[in-house]
Amino acid sequence: MRIRIEDVARAAGVSPATVSRVMNEENNVSESTRQRVLDAMKALDYRPLASARSLAGNRTFLIALLYDNNDNPSSTYLAEIQDGVLEACDAQRYSMMVRPLRMRDADLVRRLDSLVSDHHPDGLILTPPLTDFAPLVAFLHERALPFASVSPQHGEGVIGVAMNEQQAARAMVEHLLSLGHRRIAHVTGLPSHGASRWREAGYREAMAAAGLTVDPALVVQGGFTFTTGFEAGRQLLRLDPRPTAVFAANDDMAAGLIWSAGEVGLRVPQDLSVAGFDDVPLARQLWPPLTTVRQPSREMGKIAAAQLLESLRGRGTGELVQVPFSLELRQSTMPPG
In terms of pTM, does the model score above 0.85? Predict the structure, then answer.
């Protein structure tokens, strides 16, 4: 027998209207009453019809996660963000949809307008590089559409989540310097990404603080993919003298660097130390396991969604939450031979 709203009301000692207000997350319910209703719903395993819930609250209880896989090709990073967003949505009984929007497409804003008109999401979550794409952000403000950002370049007035990637990159290069490396190369990410600029800036800061001038040949353009890391490695390892260590702007490129070293008979880390950024599962699956910066991507997705949902529920305006990084020191780095 299907549990009805009246059953929940009876178990909680409140009216059906109060149960409805709790389900629709209205503010005019005391916290103790809200908790009593939620406990009754859980005990009875009450599952309201999604259609009825949406009509009653004039909301869709749907969050749209937007990404650009042309300019953010690391599928592992996106999957981690997506898992975190989904966890936060599930906890608040929201649904999540995932949609690509390509910055290079001239009709991006039109496509976003169609998405909003067709599906009516209550809010959106932007991932890099869409996070800072001015035409998209301007459209959202113009339409007064609530949104949260993952790793925005500019945090003023933005809700979501960020990490000090420049400081993290500097810390990783300082680790390489502490091992005794001086000829340290850097493989950058895509120019359209704030992450690329932050991580390169951190690299240059650490080198300058150590009194080292960066040889332009040691900074090679990559694209956040295994293939671009592999090609960058080929370019760097043809240098004479070659670098003794390489810091890649993400783990996928670091993996490509390890393969390029193996191609020419170099051992990692005995002949070449390699470090990455993100600490995606691949970093622990490589041999040797990769020294990298841990960016808690899954947790960041969860926090961004939680901030958006808090704002939607009227329990705060949301804020830009800063998360800490850590260095995961594994077997891909050692002092130069």
Answer: no
